[in-house]
Amino acid sequence: MKKVWQAAWLLKAITFIGLTTLSDDDTSSNVQRLCYKAKYTIREALLKSLNMCDKGLMTTAVYVYPTWVCDAVKALKAPGCTIPVASMPTGFPAGQTHLKTVLEEIILAVENGVTEIDVVINRTLVQTDQREALCDEICQFHKACGESHLKVILATGELGFLTHVYKASMIAMMAGSDFIKISTGKETVNATFPVAIVMLRAIRDFFWKTGNKVGFKPAGGIRSDKDSLACLSLVKEELGDEWLMPELFRIGASTLVSDIKRQIYHHVTGR
Ligand SMILES: *[C@@H]1O[C@H](CO)[C@@H](O)[C@H](O)[C@H]1NC(C)=O
Ligand SMILES: *[C@@H]1O[C@H](CO)[C@@H](O)[C@H](O)[C@H]1NC(C)=O
């Protein structure tokens, strides 16, 4: 029984994970391969034995650098394929790029068909408590995104205190962010449980105050299937089942997909 339960949760976890290629040497064929993997994450034979063939089980997004957006959009164009292309404009992960450049790149990426933008904040604004400036920065990201979804990366490993994490979360949500994301995965401190809980409580407080549901994305250093299940249950505990959908919950851990695939293979074949 326990094993069946676990396989079901692992399959669910797949639908919250995006596949990423953010390498210095990305090429068009790299990107196409990634898009193929995103569409056919779990082999059909395995899905058949789990009775999941018709459930449209796919990973939830494809992340590429802005240069490769057009290739990814093209590669994902297929009947029935709803996987969005996501991108992070210049400034990822350091947040040291001029705001104007970042905004221009967001606009260009959106024109090219990106429907999700992950953008880092200027950490100094949080560390020095410049709330209005932070709010203004994120409002401008939001405006540049237009209809595309904005995910604000708080890079919490560099914010110092948990009170900073809470404040930055609130400001990001007030400024129109659709998601708040823990980390770029490149900081020396990545996703931690205390930070995750503070952000989840901020999301809950924001929902109680405004009625708006904002999404949560733990990322950085989530490597095992156990980590991903822990994230799932944390969100379930703090926010409830209604948050367990790709519009409100993502796990930033593309390396995890192969681990989960292995586990599912093992579950089905016993090998
Ligand atoms: C980040 O904020 C600080 C403090 O206001 C500012 O001095 C710095 O120029 C900002 N960095 C960028 C890249 O805009
Ligand atoms: C944070 O995540 C990155 C990428 O997964 C990894 O290289 C780094 O070692 C992690 N840091 C910690 C402290 O786990």
UniProtKB/TrEMBL annotation:
Its main location: cytoplasm. It comes from the Eukaryota. One of its GO terms (biological process) is deoxyribose phosphate catabolic process. GO terms for cellular component: cytoplasm; nucleus. Belongs to the DeoC/FbaB aldolase family. DeoC type 2 subfamily. Catalyzes a reversible aldol reaction between acetaldehyde and D-glyceraldehyde 3-phosphate to generate 2-deoxy-D-ribose 5-phosphate. Participates in stress granule (SG) assembly. May allow ATP production from extracellular deoxyinosine in conditions of energy deprivation. This is Deoxyribose-phosphate aldolase. It comes from Callorhinus ursinus (Northern fur seal). The gene is LOC112818127.
